[in-house]
Specification:
The chain has 199 residues and is mainly alpha-helical. It has a domain at 76-167 and 181-186: Arc Repressor Mutant, subunit A (Orthogonal Bundle), CATH 1.10.10. It is built from eight helices and three strands; from the N terminus they run H-H-H-E-H-H-E-E-H-H-H. A three-stranded antiparallel β-sheet has the order 1-3-2. The longest helix is centred in the first third of the chain and has 68 residues, at 2-69. It is elongated. The termini are far apart. Mean pLDDT is 76; it is low at 183-188.
Length: 199
């Protein structure tokens, strides 16, 4: 009995001594695998940051290209004003001096009273034309260019020079066109003014 108990004690002691040797490599393997996994975990964050930066740079380049290719907003607004039909002709007529409503109708052929009123109102809102009312009987109303409107003189002159060089007029029709005096006599006056036939 004593011999058996001694063998059991020796076997138990040997197992106790072997336990640290068996568990130690496993711990080292775990720590080694964790240390090897850390660089792989940090790698995706670095690549994602670089991709986001490149994407932002591409967006900034696209915005800069759009801004550089776009026309000047002031130029666009100026062309929207001057590009409307009859506006350039009205400004060219007013560069010669103040004119009454019926005189503008007679100068610009084919312009109706309603459209003339709209164009004059738009030019007044843009600060190009001012409406002057003379308190007399009958009431006299004249339209004249402001300083901002008179600054368009070089522009109108340049368009005149370009048209003389490059624009070809169609052949005149066989039937004579109505005289300008008859058109001026038949045109109606507006804006509350009294227009005489010899004005």
């Amino acid at each position: 009995m004593t011999f058996v108990t001694l063998n059991r004690r020796q076997s138990a002691d040997s197992q106790k001594m072997r336990l640290p040797t068996a568990s130690w490599p496993a711990r080292r393997v775990k720590t080694y695998t964790r240390s090897m996994a850390k660089p792989h975990e940090s790698a995706p964050s670095a690549s994602s940051s670089t991709s986001s930066r490149s994407h932002q740079q591409q967006q900034q380049q696209q915005q800069q290209q759009k801004q550089s290719s776009r026309l000047c907003p002031r130029y666009e607004h100026a062309m929207q004003i001057l590009g409307k039909r009859w506006t350039g002709l009205l400004i060219a007529s007013l560069l010669d001096g103040p004119r009454r409503f019926c005189e503008l109708t007679a100068t610009v052929g084919g312009l109706s009273d309603r459209v003339l009123s709209e164009r004059l109102r738009e030019l007044e809102q843009e600060g190009l034309v001012e409406r002057v009312v003379y308190p007399q009987i009958p009431v006299r109303v004249e339209y004249q260019l402001t300083e901002k409107g008179r600054a368009l003189q070089p522009v109108i002159d340049a368009i005149h020079a370009w048209a003389e060089q490059w624009i070809e007029l169609p052949c005149p029709p066989s039937s004579p066109a109505p005289a300008a005096a008859e058109t001026a006599a038949t045109s109606a006056c507006g804006e509350g003014e009294h227009c005489e036939s010899n004005a």
